[in-house]
TrEMBL record:
The keyword Isomerase applies. It comes from the Eukaryota. This is Glucose-6-phosphate isomerase. It comes from Hevea brasiliensis. The keyword Isomerase applies. Belongs to the GPI family. Coiled coil: none annotated. Its EC number is 5.3.1.9. It catalyses: alpha-D-glucose 6-phosphate = beta-D-fructose 6-phosphate. Pathway: Carbohydrate degradation; glycolysis; D-glyceraldehyde 3-phosphate and glycerone phosphate from D-glucose: step 2/4. Keywords: Gluconeogenesis, Glycolysis, Isomerase.
């Protein structure tokens, strides 16, 4: 867990970077694929897959080879394939069509042992196994929508009581029973959610997908440490800051961006003469720095985040449920949708298990090594953020350097996309005709708009028919050019279907991770960037101390970058010192006495004011 002050107190000097380790898997595709013209890349990918397969063979069954073949274009065969493979979840009204993926029976047969192992792994995980071995943690997001699955009664009670507390608090806020102390409206009208990554993406997706046109509380987000972005959110609130419920979300309670967002918001409250604690809510692990601060300062409410729920799978915890409930979204329906989907995904027969079908398709398309990207295209504006949400869920889970046996595998599955038909006017040209490095997942919503509002904008055709036509047309056009696609269809965008979609992809990630033998539940790579950021800020403090000392002299002594570096005992970091100085100069916190930032060697720099307390030292 990062500490609140950790960003600025890391190691005192920037270490020279060690060169990146070259790996077999990294270098092989480069070498091999360079020998082939672009259109013939399938073969090298297969050979890489085979190579990796032999690496994994000690712990896994032999990797099924992907037969080289074109996609069938025979309409009768395609229709048969469509009907044979169509998955339907009757109660959820959800369909999964994998007919436009080119896998064959042999591949499915070969994958069966791995799938059965994945089902077993998921069963163990749900029973409370330490499925995240590196962090020694259980992985329990599935219990959140069916607490009776929790491995002990203590966890069950925690889940149930948190859900009850979320519902009660939301009801009291919406009804005005809990009110802000000094708002003329007499009730909370806005939510300002402060959080990042898994503590933002789920709530953002769900708000966009499900919030009614006029929610009881409108939501906005601070999900970065960009001061201009923060100012914008606060300025947009204007006088309504007095009726804003600020929800600070951080599992660890120590993420620097979230800490900064909180400090900025607290300052805005002070500037407006408002008492933050009366309007602040914390969602975090018990006894985290955030939790302790909220308790000591007497914030309006605190809700727990559980150790065994990862940030990117926290949408069904208080993280996602509280903001949703405050916007008038039926969270019990979301949970019901997720729970129904989970039940289906426990079935150990491939064709009856939509998450397994997805995972199998991912494996097929990307050779189990991420050789193709997943383009997610919901044809529905309200699902715009689904691909962004999935980007973290999939890429932070799957993008791993090592497998569970410690082999370097550099795994991943790249996800991107926005929405159709809009993206047809942006990059679908490349998908149809350009580099063949992707497969598509269409998300189709059958209901165009609420009943009673539709009209024909030309004889026999509605606006929604166009959207439908665009999706079907793009799917066909891509397939005609051998571009594979999956289609997930839901009847409507409802709390139930959104809950089901979240659960579908959470499980697909879990199953896929098992198929490729990686830990989907940790994120060791994220720490490197955070640590480096801490080192930059530590260096900045030393630069400030050196500049301050020189600027307190009579007369002021402007310094070259080399002089600053030397006095910081960080000669090897002169480039970073240049960047620090340029950034401070752009923000009027350092003054350039001579030269210009365009020619770094010419610069002489000093501080406009001498800080006599020398608080930088
Ligand atoms: O919820 P927090 O502890 O503030 O973490 C927020 C995010 O930060 C990290 O960088 C992780 O990579 C994410 O998985 C996490 O969701």
């Amino acid at each position: 867990m990062a500490s609140l002050s950790g960003l600025c107190s890391s190691s005192p000097s920037l270490k020279p970077k060690t060169p990146l380790l070259k790996t077999t898997i990294n270098s092989t595709p480069l070498k091999t694929s360079l020998a082939f013209p672009t259109r013939s890349r399938l073969e090298p990918i297969q050979s890489i897959a085979r190579e990796i397969s032999s690496d994994l063979s000690e712990t896994n069954d032999k990797l099924p080879s992907k037969p080289k073949q074109g996609l069938t274009k025979d309409p009768t065969a395609l229709w048969r394939r469509y009907v044979d493979w169509l998955y339907q979840h009757k109660e959820l009204g959800l369909y999964l069509d994998v007919s436009r993926m080119g896998f064959n029976d042999e591949f499915v047969r070969d994958m069966e042992p791995r799938l059965q192992k994945a089902f077993k792994d998921m069963e163990e995980l749900e029973k409370g196994a330490i499925a995240n071995p590196d962090e020694g943690r259980m992985v329990g997001h599935y219990w959140l929508r069916n607490s009776s699955l929790a491995p002990n009664s203590f966890l069950k009670t925690q889940i149930d009581s948190t859900l009850d507390a979320v519902c009660k608090f939301a009801e009291e806020v919406v009804s005005g029973e809990i009110k802000p102390p000094s708002s003329p409206e007499g009730r909370f009208t806005q939510i300002l959610s402060v959080g990042i990554g898994g503590s933002a993406l789920g709530p953002q997706f769900v708000a966009e997908a499900l919030a009614p046109d006029n929610p009881p509380l409108k939501i906005r987000f601070i999900d970065n440490t960009d001061p201009a972005g923060i100012d914008h959110q606060i300025a947009q609130l204007g006088p309504e800051l007095a009726s804003t419920l600020v929800i600070v979300i951080s599992k660890s309670g120590g993420t620097p961006e979230t800490r900064n967002g909180l400090l900025e918001v607290q300052k805005a409250f002070r500037d407006a003469g408002l008492e933050f604690a009366k309007q602040g809510v914390a969602i975090t692990q018990e006894n985290s720095l955030l939790d302790n601060a909220a308790r000591i300062e007497g914030w309006l409410a605190r809700f727990p985040m559980f150790d065994w729920v990862g940030g990117r799978t926290s949408e069904m915890s208080a993280v996602g449920l509280l903001p949703a409930a405050l916007q008038g979204i039926d969270i019990r329906e979301m949970l019901a949708g997720a729970s129904l989907m989970d039940e289906a995904n426990r079935i150990t027969v491939l064709r009856d298990n939509p998450a397994a079908m997805l995972a199998l398709c991912w494996y097929w398309a990307s050779d189990g090594i991420g050789s193709k990207d997943m383009v997610v295209l919901p044809y529905k504006d309200s699902l715009l953020l689904f691909s962004r949400y999935l980007q973290q869920l999939v890429m932070e889970s799957i993008g791993k350097e090592f497998d569970l046996d410690g082999n370097r595998v550099n795994q991943g599955l790249t996800v991107y996309g926005n929405k159709g038909s809009t993206d047809q006017h942006a990059y679908i040209q490349q998908l149809r005709e350009g580099v063949h490095n992707f497969f598509v997942t269409f998300i189709e919503v059958l209901r165009d708009r609420p009943p009673g509002h539709d009209w024909e904008l030309e004889p026999g055709v509605t606006c929604g028919d166009y959207l439908f036509g665009m999706l079907q047309g793009t799917r066909s056009a891509l397939y005609a050019n051998d571009r594979e696609s999956i289609t997930v269809t839901v009847q409507e965008v409802t709390p139930r279907s959104v809950g089901a979609l979240v659960a579908l992809y959470e499980r697909a990630v879990g199953i896929y991770a098992s198929l490729i033998n990686i830990n989907a539940y940790h994120q060791p790579g994220v720490e490197a960037g955070k640590k480096a950021a801490g080192e930059v800020l530590a260096l900045q403090k030393r630069v400030l101390a050196v500049l301050n000392e020189a600027s307190c002299k009579e007369p002021v002594e402007p310094l070259t970058l080399e002089e600053v570096a030397e006095r910081c005992h960080a000669e090897e970091d002169v480039e970073m010192i240049y960047k620090i100085v340029a950034h401070m100069a752009a923000n009027d916190r350092a003054l350039i006495a001579e030269g210009s930032c365009g020619s770094p060697r010419s610069i002489k720099v000093f501080l406009g004011e001498c800080n006599v307390d020398d608080s930088y030292a």
